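Hello,

Our lab assistant flagged a job as stuck in the queue for most of the afternoon. It eventually completed. Since we weren't sure the result was trustworthy after the delay, we are filing this so someone can double-check. Below is the sequence as submitted and the structure that was eventually returned. Let us know if re-running is recommended.
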Amino acid sequence: MSGADRQAAGSAPAGVPILDAHMHVWDLSLGKHPWLIGPPIAFRYGDYGPIRRSFGIADYRRAAAGFDLRGTVYVEAEWDPADPLGETRWVHALAAREGLPSAMVAQAWLDRDDVEEVLAAQAAFPLVRGIRHKPRAARSPDHVEAGVPGSLSCPRFARGFALLARYGLSFDLQVPWWHLGEAYQLFVRYPAVEVVLNHTGLPADRTREGLEGWRAAMRRIAKLPQVAVKISGLGRPGRRWTVEANRDVVETVLELFGIERCLFASNWPVDTLVGDYATIMGGFAQITERLPAADRVRLFHDNACRIYRIAGATGRSSAASGNRAPGAGES
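-- returned structure --
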């Protein structure tokens, strides 16, 4: 272990602004998050009891204290799927009141009959830049089956995905790495849709075999120029987030995708299950401390501004720079 790795992570990167590319907030009094107010679900970090409470923008700002925070991208948080527009309205009211988030990745179910109606409505909101629909996933590489309803290889999913370009929406993809082959086959057919792979392709299995499979899948998907990746979500059940554990993963992704297609993100508050904001974002700063200053600014700020179309050096959102479809009004 290097001397740098032995140092405690947690220091904000000096002179580097932060546009956090992936965060959430939720108010459980609204009764809109089944996974947080109902029976616990199987979760990739194991017990998630500590985040089964409300988190607001004030909580987020306290967590990020000491960092030069310029803005954030809110990503849908599994709000009641019967009311996807309700989450978008709530987030816009929050942004008007609190000054964050700066942009939003909204919910839509690409395999539903009403997908085009929902996409058109989401695209009309000034902060909405993209859509996230978590495809159905197999529990391991050995259990992947083609054409499973709700999966990336489902024809109904593909029809919905194809509509994203019509409404100027990007797609945030969250699947385990063993589904990236299906993702490649889908995305190569629709190069006009920009894709942001969430949480580093989920390299939870850090055995040699697991990492080899993850690297191969990431290497292939990186060949598609429309795909960027959020370096985030690197926690593992029962283990704290450390630079030592995550340095190789981060450096591999930077090598495969290049600086211009990588974004650092906190995944707050979910990743507080494995480390606080300063540990994670400061850890990314420590891993990249030898990179040129301009590259670090791209990773922590500029790439997120570009990919999510957030205007201005301060990361403040602008409705005029949004992605609304032609003729769509504000809401």
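-- support follow-up --
The delay was a queue issue, not a problem with the job. The result is valid. The domain at 16-315 is CATH 3.20.20.140 (TIM Barrel). The first strand starts at residue 17 and ends at 23.
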